[in-house]
Design goal:
Elements (H helix, E strand, L loop, with lengths): L8 H21 L16 H14 L9 H13 L6 H15 L9 E2 L2 E2 H18 L8 H16 L7 H14 L15 H25 L3
Antiparallel strand pairs: 1-2
Helix pairs in contact: 2-4, 4-5, 4-6, 5-6, 6-7, 6-8, 7-8
């Protein structure tokens, strides 16, 4: 068929698309290392962040329970009014949340660049920044924020159509990590060492992880 329609419009369009993808891949290879002073440098203006966070809470948080909304809202107001700008965990959490929402949001007008959607490129950038932050976190003492970012990372991979072939393995690795942190166990066994808030968040993150793992297993055909 390629020989019969060698000079067809569809054939030329396919070649142009492949050439564009090759060029984008080449450009990406030169910018794989992310050089930023801190995560706050990547944060959009507050109006944009407010819109994307509202979209996140209206969509993802109605199904997945990753964020405790009252606690987050209180910290979020302080985040913008603080002049110290040293809340790195909040930086990572917000970036992960808006990375989830940006590809599912409606905008006044579409924007494109050499790799496609400009909003998709933003999601990729924010996700890479969160990945870099996660790599710097302690494996022995995992904070609640780091576990939340890990859950949000999986949702971003799914909505942004990144690492499609590796997504199942990414989810399984995440499940193993939460098991090693003991989130699969009833928090009641920790007694007073685990506060009521922490116990509830551990349950939420584990149930969210099980929901994601169930869905990806169905998609993969392993159930």
């Amino acid at each position: 068929m390629k020989e019969v329609y060698n000079d067809s419009t569809a054939r030329r369009l396919s070649q142009d698309i492949k050439a564009l993808q090759d060029r984008a891949r080449t450009l990406q290879s030169h910018h794989r290392i992310l050089h930023i002073r801190n995560l706050r440098d990547l944060m959009p203006d507050r109006i944009t962040v407010d819109i994307l966070l509202r979209r996140y809470f209206e969509t993802f948080e109605t199904t997945y329970r990753v964020i405790h909304v009252p606690t987050f809202n209180k910290a979020y107001e302080t985040y913008w009014t603080s002049h110290e700008a040293n809340d790195i965990e909040m930086d990572a959490l917000i970036l992960a949340m808006i990375a989830c929402a940006i590809c599912t949001s409606t905008h006044a007008g579409p924007r494109y660049n050499h790799v496609g959607s400009a909003f998709h490129s933003k999601a990729v950038l924010w996700l890479r920044a969160c990945d870099a932050w996660l790599k710097r976190q302690s494996n022995k003492h995992r904070s609640l924020a780091s576990l939340q970012v890990r859950c949000l990372r999986l949702l971003t991979l799914s909505t942004s159509n990144m690492k499609v072939k590796e997504y199942y393995h990414e989810v399984q690795a995440h499940v193993a990590l939460l098991r090693s942190a003991g989130l699969h166990r009833d928090p009641g066994i920790f007694g007073t060492r685990c506060s009521i808030f922490e116990a509830e968040m551990r349950r939420r993150l584990w149930e969210t992880t099980m929901e994601i793992e169930l869905q990806v297993s169905i998609d993969k055909g392993v159930l």
